[in-house]
């Protein structure tokens, strides 16, 4: 994989019944985009506006425990957002959580098309090839504890879903049963965003799926990421086992 490849796959040889995805794994800006810079400071590029802090490490740890492949994007969500449909107005952000994105300020339709072709579409082609009928999808994201000017977010973890609640309800119940977690149900975001990755790859094919959001201050280190993976892996296994096994590929 070159430094500017749009995605990378870890554990492609793994035979587990999951596909773990991380749409916002990295804050990397390819050289083809303004020489590799969006015009933001290093500090801004380390914020949640550029990527999902800690989500890549959590995804890779889950892949290890679930013995399943992991697909990660290799470009910042500010280059173009792979978890948005091509017609979504937030596909390419010019301002995000109070920060102006200089390299995006004067982009036009031709710029968007180039970024779609170079990064967004190759990522989704790989996603489609990996999302086979014998795999359930677990999409891993993280969220900031507080947006600018907003109230603090109380949840340690959020479980998001659209129309398909098969894995979500079972996972939520098991997380809540622990008694020491504040679990967001379609929080801090609504689980149904037309054109997003789950909408594109899971719902049309009736693949079991779940989207997990972990608060990013809890998964900043490898130790924290591994601890959350150790917590989540058995819960996900139990949830999958409790669903229709013919659809789960068991």
Could you tell me the CATH topology label. Answer: Aminopeptidase
- Global shape: globular
Assign the structural class, choosing from mainly alpha, mainly beta, alpha/beta, alpha+beta, or little secondary structure: alpha/beta
Strand content: 15-25%
The CATH architecture can be named as 3-Layer(aba) Sandwich
SSE arrangement, N to C: EEHHEEEHEEHEHEHH
Number of domains: 1
Q: Count up the helices.
A: 7
Stretches where pLDDT is under 50 for at least 5 consecutive residues are 245-250
Q: How far apart lie the N and C ends?
A: 32 Å
CATH classification, class level: Alpha Beta
Q: What is the average of the pLDDT values?
A: 94
| Helix content estimate | 25-40%
| Rg calculated over all Cα atoms | 17 Å
Number of strands: 9
Please list the strands of the largest sheet in the order they lie side by side: 1-3-2-6-9-7-8
The profile of the biggest β sheet is:
7 strands, mixed
CATH level-four homologous superfamily name: Zn-dependent exopeptidases
Write the topology of this structure.
Elements: E1 7-10, E2 18-22, H1 42-45, H2 55-66, E3 70-73, E4 95-96, E5 99-100, H3 109-130, E6 136-143, E7 157-160, H4 166-177, E8 183-185, H5 197-201, E9 209-215, H6 222-242, H7 245-248
Parallel strand pairs: 2-3, 2-6, 6-9, 7-8
Antiparallel strand pairs: 1-3, 4-5, 7-9
């Amino acid at each position: 994989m070159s430094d500017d490849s749009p995605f990378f796959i870890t554990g492609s040889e793994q035979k587990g019944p999951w596909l773990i995805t991380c749409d916002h794994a990295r804050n990397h800006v390819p050289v083809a985009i303004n020489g590799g810079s969006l015009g933001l400071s290093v500090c801004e590029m380390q914020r949640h506006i550029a990527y999902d802090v800690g989500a890549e490490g959590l995804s890779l740890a889950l892949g290890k425990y679930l013995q399943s492949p992991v697909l990660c994007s290799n470009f910042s969500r500010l280059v173009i957002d792979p978890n948005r449909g091509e017609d979504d107005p937030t596909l390419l952000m010019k301002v995000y959580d109070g920060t102006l994105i200089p390299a995006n300020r004067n982009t036009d339709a031709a710029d968007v098309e180039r970024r779609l072709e170079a990064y967004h579409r190759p990522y989704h082609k790989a996603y489609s090839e990996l999302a086979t009928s014998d795999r359930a999808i677990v999409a891993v994201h993280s969220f900031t504890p507080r947006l600018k000017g907003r109230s603090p977010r109380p949840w340690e973890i959020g479980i998001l879903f659209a129309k398909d609640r098969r894995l979500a309800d079972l996972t939520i119940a098991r997380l809540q049963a622990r008694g020491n977690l504040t679990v967001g149900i379609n929080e801090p975001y609504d689980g149904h965003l037309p054109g997003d990755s789950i909408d594109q790859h899971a719902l049309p094919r009736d693949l079991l799926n779940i989207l997990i959001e972990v608060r990013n201050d809890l998964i900043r280190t490898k130790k924290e990421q591994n601890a959350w993976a150790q917590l989540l892996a058995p819960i996900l296994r139990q949830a999958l086992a409790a669903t229709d096994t013919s659809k789960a590929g068991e």
